[in-house]
Structure formats: structure tokens, C-alpha cells
Design a protein that fits this description.
Shape: globular
Distance between the termini: 40 Å
Oligomer: single chain
Helix content: under 10%
Radius of gyration: 13 Å
Number of strands: 10
Length: 116
């Protein structure tokens, strides 16, 4: 069984920073590429960033490239998303999941709200 718990969201002014964390349980984490996803009100969920199982390679959506950094600590079974220079359009609920995602593994997500 896989359980993913996201944390670290909050309310921040434009230009500010947040660091999201995702704690995973189960054995799948260490062998899986992981991703951060987000869903804004009225929009479909989108993939924001991915990282390979060993953490060597990362990829980012164009909208966050140069501002967000994904990382992971396999010993802690945790994946992180450092978000800098936040913009109001980054407002969304942020989720982590495997890349590609497991349908049954979606957690509650963590709300990020960026005020202008």
C-alpha cells in the first residue's frame, strides 16, 4: 500500500518562497520516479516537476522552470519542491505522486496561495 502525505503549503506574497514536502510510505518510493502535480480551481491537474528514482535527472514544466527545484531523500522517503519567485498563477493545490501517477495514491495535497 502506498500513502503520500503532502505538507508545507500556505499563503505567501508574490515573489516569496515555499518548500513543500511529500512523505511516502511503502516500498515503491525508492524505485520510482516521482513528480509534483498541481490543480488550480477550474483547471485540470498538471505535472509541475519530476525526478528520477536516484535523483540524478529532473524535468520541469515551462511555467516553473528556473523558479522551482525538485529533490528527494530516499533514506527519508521524502520528495521536496522548493518554490521561489512565486506568482499568483502558482496558486493551486499541490500533490505528489509517482511519475506516471498511481490512481490510488493521490493524497490530500497541500494548498499554495500566492497573493499579488
Amino acid at each position: 500500500q502506498v500513502q503520500l502525505v503532502e505538507s508545507g503549503g500556505g499563503l505567501v506574497q508574490a515573489g516569496g518562497s515555499l518548500r513543500l514536502s511529500c512523505a511516502a510510505s511503502g516500498t515503491i518510493f525508492s524505485f520510482s520516479a516521482m513528480g509534483w502535480y498541481r490543480q488550480a480551481p477550474g483547471k485540470q491537474r498538471e505535472l509541475v516537476a519530476t525526478i528520477t528514482s536516484g535523483g540524478v535527472s529532473t524535468n520541469y514544466a515551462d511555467s516553473v522552470k528556473g523558479r522551482f527545484t525538485i529533490s528527494r531523500d530516499n533514506a527519508k522517503k521524502t520528495v521536496y519542491l522548493q518554490m521561489n519567485s512565486l506568482k499568483p498563477e502558482d496558486t493551486a493545490v499541490y500533490y505528489c505522486n509517482r511519475d506516471p501517477p498511481l490512481l490510488f495514491a493521490w493524497g490530500q495535497g497541500t494548498q499554495v496561495t500566492v497573493s499579488s
